[in-house]
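Because discrete structure vocabularies remain unfamiliar, we reproduce here a specimen of the format, pairing a chain with its fold in token form:
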Amino acid sequence: MAGQLRVMAAEAQSGGSGTRWRATVSAEHRFHITQLVDEAREQLVQLRGVHSGATAEAARTLLEHLSESAELIDRALVRTASAAVAAGVALQEVAQWSRLPAEELAAVLAANGSED
């Protein structure tokens, strides 16, 4: 009980909704977020070995991997932001944390909601 009170107090201080991530975000969404981050991590790890060969070929490979990683991270950001807003965290706070203007985040979340 004391641990739960501390968690709720910490959430309240940080602007959270007081709900727990696992209780709010479905297992399917948590799985997708984790999968996207893991895939991005794999893409970035593969870049370690791409420092030899012709300059154009190495640059092409680096840029392709970085672009794929960025797309995966963007998708994870949208899913996580959507889950936070659905859990009751204010859009302004989520926008600040994700370093996006609130209007842009709202538009992205609305577009993402229509795709699901």
Summary: The radius of gyration is 18 Å. Helices lie at 2-13, 21-24, 27-46, 55-86, 91-98, 102-115. The mean pLDDT is 80. The CA atoms of residues 15 and 89 lie 7 Å apart.
